[in-house]
Amino acid sequence: MYKLIIADDEPLVCVGVQSMLDWEAMGIEIVGIARNGQKAAELIEENKPDIVITDIKMPIKNGLQLAQESKDKYGEVPAFIILTSYEDFEYARQAIQAQTLDYLVKLELDEKTLSKAIRNAIEAVDKQRRMHPGQQVLVRSNMQALREKFFIRLFNNLFDGEENYQVQRRDLDIDQKAEAYAVATCSVMQNDECSGSDKPFSLYSSVMQLVRETICRYLPCYVVPLDMWHFSIVFCLDETVINNDYKALIREALIQTSDLLYRYMSVSLRSIVGKTVDDLRRLDISYRQSQHCCRQVGDSTVAFYDDYSVSTSDYIISLQTLRQSISKAFEEMDMAALNKSFSRLADIFVSHPDDLLNAMDTACNILYMAISLLPDGEAMVEQIFADSSESYRSLYRLRDVDSIS
Prior knowledge:
Blueprint: E1 2-7, H1 11-20, E2 28-34, H2 37-47, E3 51-55, H3 63-74, E4 79-84, H4 89-97, E5 102-105, H5 111-131, H6 135-155, H7 161-171, E6 180-190, H8 200-215, E7 221-227, E8 230-237, H9 239-242, H10 246-265, E9 267-273, H11 283-294, E10 302-304, H12 314-332, H13 335-350, H14 356-373, H15 377-384, H16 401-404
Parallel strand pairs: 1-2, 1-3, 3-4, 4-5, 9-10
Antiparallel strand pairs: 6-8, 6-9, 7-8
């Protein structure tokens, strides 16, 4: 089935387009209806449609902006069909520049005209798939990977100043207009049926895909992988959610997602949620709180930092300070400072042998810094792990702090 999104601020037009053709007979599923351009952009991000039918004039973002931004972000798919009440050559010219497939006047729209436009769109989508197999997935996956790195940098205070942060945030279209944010650290819990799986990477990939597709149905959020058995969820909470018992809403979202994972993959989640912060730049506070208490969740499916009478210990503060020192040493190529920080880090984990999650998180952060801050960093890391068939990903198989340190 081809996926279709319809965007028009006139409800009667949306109803008319929906009822004009037998979409199922054409092999098309309508996956979303939007009343403005911004909502249409969100639906495109969530549903990855093949075709978009959009009005040229809509609130917040018009159809031409939507088409151009989509093309810049995703390439030639989805294919765009533009609707308008304005028989104006300038609009038509702009639509052609945005590489839309058809420009249809609403007053002239009928079953024959729309059917022809849809058939042209299907042919164009099929042609792109033949010419560039996997291209659309690649573009989206690159954007997703960049967003994940953005949040890893936020979690660990690795941005070099406000300007660098703002540039990346805008380029990656990261929301910072929420009333508050909260980070949940989630542990993937296997049952006996899959604990012996010889394909943990495949399992984890499937888990992450299902989590992303499920959790966003409940609350706006970003999912950030940490290691083979842990990931974080950044919840973006608006004023209505904050005033309507946000903890209950987050708990429900995490429980429902965990139940779905257990039903389809025989794994479940245990999650701890840090306190809310009112600024995206302070996300590291909520992240550290969720990390600090993650191992204390016990048998609970979901818990909150407030549930525990704990405070950010000197141990956690020391880890944060060392991460910043290591980042600076990498940037300045100061090997003496780097070795000194690594020695102090090893000593800290020797005295905290049960804290696997923070040890794994710190090791992954160091790998990330090495890859991103050193010249040919990825090649250097690959060489260090040359004896392992899984390269540095073999780190994710380690199950105790001593092995990691």
